[in-house]
Design brief:
mainly beta; 5-stranded antiparallel beta sheet; 4-stranded antiparallel beta sheet; 1 helix
């Protein structure tokens, strides 16, 4: 039986809501670039990361890790990928190399893990021996398992020896407000899976000790902002109410007690958009754009985009550029690559180029700035 532990309001936020074949050249108000397709004929590419030798690893949701070398995909894949719970949104999801990979060789990935009762969001780390995953360690698995095929969350990032990752509320909205379950939360662990003693709910009986923040619906984009060190994430709202948030320790982000969206059938989930003790988003979208994946642009190759956020829109099939001011307030946004497909992820390579993972059609494209 699920345990429901509801935490009283912790802090009232006074934040204000503001509201390799070259293809044709793309022009925007900020820069000019062309797109180069480096892999096509894919299914649903979900995560992207790079090894120090320049090889790119791409997860396919059906349970494969593709190897792209020299911006070309020649059908190579990693062996030893664990079995996944391939149900709707479930499968093999995010992938990240450890920030100190050259010293420790760890690769981390998230996936929906099958078992009695359905599937769960899990985090595994492994090393490479040639093209084989070895020394595999399951460092986290959510419980209880559920047969729901939605809202696995699953983005990963690292900071100061910790791994942060997201889990959606698995389609049961009330999960998000209870720290007695792992769903609808951002989590924080030591890189080996141990629970940090200073996590916010460690001392609360029956609480899930890995929880960092709660009240989330389904966060599928998350990254630390290089300028400030803040953890930023966006999450899917229902019909309307997608959010962009700064994620802070112990804070409650409100779902489903507050929301700027309604249910898919038009019914009202809540008539409140603000409540004491619950954080307000930096920005929300209505109608929903269905955001997925994100990166802060740091590369000098795109000088007009410096410190902007790039994120995908699954619903409207474009890459979204979000401009922030120095204080982190939302300023404006711009649609790029309109009609390209369902943009699942966007990432900046170590050599400073932007890559975009698209489904429907499944492909990886590279944005080449025009000089």
């Amino acid at each position: 039986m699920k345990k429901s532990i509801f935490i009283p309001a912790l802090l009232f936020s006074m934040s204000v809501v503001i509201s390799c074949q070259a293809e044709p050249e793309k022009k925007t108000a900020a820069t000019e670039f062309e797109t180069i397709t480096i892999a096509d004929g894919l299914n649903n590419p979900w995560g992207m990361t790079w090894l120090p030798d320049g090889r790119m690893l791409v997860t396919e949701i059906k349970g494969e890790i593709l190897i792209i070398e020299g911006d070309k995909y020649n059908g190579k894949k990693l062996n030893g990928v664990p079995e996944v719970y391939a149900n709707n949104q479930g499968g093999l999801l995010d992938i990240q190399v450890h920030p100190d990979y050259e010293s420790n060789g760890w690769i981390y990935f998230s996936f929906s893990k099958p078992g009695d009762g359905g599937g769960s969001t899990a985090i595994m780390r492994a090393k490479l021996d040639g093209n084989n995953l070895v020394n595999k360690e399951l460092i986290y698995e959510s419980f209880p398992k559920t047969r729901s095929g939605v809202h696995f969350g699953s983005r990963i990032d690292f900071k100061d020896g910790y791994i942060f990752f997201t889990i959606g509320e698995r389609g049961e909205m009330d999960n998000a407000q209870s720290v007695g379950n792992p769903f609808g939360k951002v989590h924080r662990l030591h890189e080996n899976g141990d629970v940090p003693e200073d996590n916010p709910f460690v001392q609360i009986p029956d609480a899930v000790k890995s929880i960092w923040s709660y009240g989330h619906r389904n966060p599928q984009g998350m990254q630390f902002r290089p300028e400030t060190g803040e953890l930023w994430a966006h999450e899917h709202g229902p019909k309307g109410g997608d959010e962009l948030n700064i994620v802070q320790k112990a804070k409650n982000y409100g779902w489903p007690e507050i929301s700027y969206g309604i249910d898919y059938d038009g019914s009202i989930i809540t008539d409140e958009t603000k409540k004491e003790g619950m954080m307000q988003p930096v920005h929300y979208w209505d109608p929903s754009i269905a955001p997925c994946g994100m990166t802060f642009v740091t590369s000098e190759r795109y000088p007009e985009w410096e410190n902007n956020i790039l994120m995908g829109s699954l619903k409207f099939r474009y890459l979204n550029r979000v401009v922030l001011d120095e204080e982190g307030n939302y300023v404006k946004e711009e649609k790029l690559l309109e009609g390209i497909g369902r943009v699942r992820h966007v990432a900046e390579s170590p050599d400073g180029f932007i890559y975009v993972a698209v489904e429907g059609p499944g492909k990886i494209i590279k944005l080449m700035p025009k000089k």
